Amino acid sequence: MRIGPLAIALLVTAFAPIAQAQDTGLAGDEQILLKQVMTDKKTVYAANLGLTEEESARFWPIYDEYEAKQKVLADRFLANLNNFAEKYDTLTDEDAAAMLKEKMAIEKDGAALKQVYTKKIAKELPPKKALRYAQLETRIQNMIQRDVYSLIPLAR
Q1: 63-112 pLDDT, tens per residue?
Q2: DSSP, res 155
Q3: How far apart are CA 76 and CA 74, in angstroms?
Q4: What does R_g of the chain's alpha carbons equal in angstroms?
């Protein structure tokens, strides 16, 4: 499984904006790295789901749609993270409250999105493959979150 490179690519993607302190969104290099993360995830699913040609024809369009919506959430996460990095030394209670509100909204939206798309996938794949997809998605998300959050300093 190629989950290691996936985590490294996401970490680089997540923390390059902090180092650069950009407020204009993701730079070209970061977009390339994010695209590599998505490619690596596709490779993991392709290698582990064992989809038939017919199943692939139904699965991949749903997966691509899900990933496009996940990217919007990732962009929001990175924007919130950049905001935290920029204000780290001067963080006010108001700043912290706004960042916490956005963090919780991103997590809520992510969970809702995962529910919707896992149900769509479950309608198109045999139950064991749908479960395997859900297990892989959870493992990948948990691993990435663990690695990313372990590198973010706590607010002071």
Answers
A1: 999 999 999 999 999 999 999 999 999 999 999 999 999 999 999 999 99
A2: P
A3: 5
A4: 17
Residue 156 maps to a domain: no
152 φ, ψ (degrees, to nearest 5): -85, 125
pLDDT tens per residue, range 107-117: 999 999 999 99
Q: Would you state the structure tokens that stand for residue 92, as one six-digit string?
A: 């006010």
Q: Which domain holds residue 108?
A: 3-151
- Tokens coding 66: 């899900």
Which DSSP string do the residues of 130-154 spell out, in sequence order? HHHHHHHHHHHHHHHHHHHHHHSPP
Can you tell me the distance from the alpha carbon of 54 to that of 16, in angstroms, rounded to the nearest whole number? 40
Helix (H) or strand (E) holding 112: helix 93-124
Amino acid letter for position 45 = Y
Six token digits for residue 41: 């995830």
Q: How many distinct structural domains can be found in the chain?
A: 1
String of DSSP letters for 60-95 = HHHHHHHHHHHHHHHHHHHHHHHHHHHHGGG--HHH
**Residue 23 DSSP one-character state:** S
User: What does pTM read for this prediction?
Assistant: 0.76
